[in-house]
Amino acid sequence: MRLATVDGRAALVVGAGYVVDLARASRGRFGHETQAAYERWDELTEFAATVNPAGEWVRSAEPGDFGNPVPAPRQVFAIGLNYADHAAESSFALPEQPVVFTKFPTCLTGPTGDVELPPGKVDWEVELVVVIGRRAHHVAEDHGWNYVAGLSVGQDLSERVLQQTGPAPQFSLAKSYPGFGPIGPVVVSPDELPGRDDLELGCSVNGEQMQQGRTAQMIFPVPELIARLSAVTPLLPGDVIFTGTPSGVGLGRTPQRYLVPGDELVSHVEGIGSMRHHLVAPAS
Ligand code: ZN
After folding, report:
1. 124, 140, 145, 253: which has the highest count of C-beta atoms within 10 A?
2. Ligand 1 centroid to 124 CA: how many Å?
């Protein structure tokens, strides 16, 4: 199943560029708010299997019609230093347990559009995003995937000056400017991804590839993240986990490189899709 937000409403993707409006196709059984769908994930999965991909509610949609498929999570988790080569380029030791911070929810945005650059040094971090499909508390690693509704593409945009100011890293604040948490274009259920533990991901700036990695390189893979996070705090349906970034960020390059107005940032994860953002100067 592929869940999306199209023109601000929950939609199922039934083919490349083709969607059905969830509320209309279900005749009101499901509402139009995408976030609410995660509360009834099993029921939605059953319903989605009955949708006719050539039925009366099918229509075409353009990339710009897609919004954030997880617009209002109650909790947003983000994992730092989850790829060894990225920890090395950032001059950090390998973590022995996940480095966890949050991206405050007002930073979340959709898979296309403009992102305003605040003062400082804004960097890219393409990431696999996990969306939780059922309440998870004290979950064993072996059962971790059972709690995942689906996977999406994310960018953990980061302002490095604020991040590095003070005696301890300010990950949460420096990664939460408006527009710094794009997600999309769709949430794909793991059963649609035969290689769910080993997906290629990457990003480019103005067509030049900056990052390329595979999620199999994660120090803490998805099921282990769910086990370790849920050992402390319950994970709720519709919660989001940004799972960390591979190497190739601007901070780790020689010379260092950061985003400037006019740049186009394209981010992708194999089997899910791609996002396209334009960086712009703040409106004065
Ligand atoms: Zn990150």
Report:
1. 124
2. 9
Domain ranges of the chain: 2-67, 76-280
Listed as own residue / partner, the contacts of 227-231 with beta carbons closer than 8 Å and 24 or more positions apart are 227/139, 227/140, 227/141, 227/144, 228/97, 228/98, 229/77, 229/98, 229/100, 230/136, 230/137, 230/138, 230/139, 230/147, 231/138
Q: If you measure from the C-alpha of residue 4 to the centroid of ligand 1, how many angstroms do you get, rounded to a whole number?
A: 23
**pLDDT tens-digit profile of 124-178?**
999 999 999 999 999 999 999 999 999 999 999 999 999 999 999 999 999 999 9
Q: What's the fold here for domain 76-280? A: Fumarylacetoacetate hydrolase; domain 2 (3.90.850)
175 Cα to the center of ligand 1, angstroms: 8
pTM over 0.90: yes
The mean predicted confidence, pLDDT, of the chain is 97
